[in-house]
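Listing S7. Sequence submitted for prediction.
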Amino acid sequence: MHRPALLLTVVLAVAVLVLNNAFGAVPALKAHDYKMAGDAQYTRVVIHFDRKPDFRWFLLRDPSRLVIDLPSTEFSFDPLELRPRGLIAAVQYGAVDAQRARILFKAEGPFAVEQVDVMKNETSEGFRLIIELRASSSEAFDTALRASIMKPSAEGGRPETVKPMNDRFTIALDAGHGGADGGARGVNGTVEKQITLLFSLELAKKIEETGRYRVVLTRDDDRFLRLDERVRIAREKGADLFVSVHADAIAVRGVRGATVYTVSDKASDAEAAATAARENLSDEIAGKVAEEEQNEVEDILVDLIRRETHAFSIRFARTLIGKLSDSIQLVKNPHRYAGFRVLRAPDIPSVLLELGYLSNPKDEAQLRDPQWRATTMEAIIDAIGYFAKANGAAGG
């Protein structure tokens, strides 16, 4: 094994042990006896576990990859068995956080997933995970990727394109600000944290009334949440889409209209950069500093799926703008982007919706108008439906 690959393997293994020792209330899975066989057309992987693993899988491209997500796991693989073979060009594994681990298979080219199943061992204790891959075309791989990336598969099956009604497409609504962080204040006294909560509660009720979706609220009362806590709640609740609701204020009172933001390290314009800077100050304003992640292993693994999620975020942003433009006033160039911390979930398409400017009397009056809110909510629900249906969700 080349030295960089060996070093990465050691780092991953050490990270898993450290995290498990630090947080291990539930005993970690034990993964061992990794075996891989096959050729450039067909490859089979078998991994043994001490107990039945709860897992999910999905695909990534550029290069073509298969990702297996697991609960906290201790790995004891023979490095010689991880050497490239058949369709598999490289194998990486390690902790994502204290509760989750991941195995990533980088392929030589596009492939089809013929099987990802768990079977109980017949002659010994434990279970084995069986993965079967077959060479495929780029077009077929992209089709499978689109099905898998929005909702990783449940144990033992292919990616689900239709979710059962007890596992509906889930929208996380994040009412901006709260508690000690009041956010912006309108010219006639409207407080951002209050109007975003009111809007989010009303929108959640309307979405649930459709009977097609599940809604998660990051907050349903006047409390402070760190930006990373908002993202964590959405991820823990299995959100398929994250919408953070805001109502900003700026010095120029004549500016009005709604804006939809997505995340980017480079801002689309100076105003977007300033908006992100204000929103990112939320933690400091409330006297709480966000806990910085220092896990190099997590950075390596999470960045692999961030690009895929970003494309879906942009797709929803454009859909939302299209629906809103038929109902309410938008700012010029309504899709903007900047480094919003609250939009950084690597695996959930996320947008920040600025409903309007509280610094503008007309926008403030609209936000306080129940009929305007209802009209805006209908447009948002239409956008959610279009997005959910385009990505294979039931009831979309």
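Caption to Listing S7: primary sequence and predicted structure tokens for the chain studied. The mean pLDDT is 84. Residues 165-390 form a domain with the Aminopeptidase fold (CATH 3.40.630.40).
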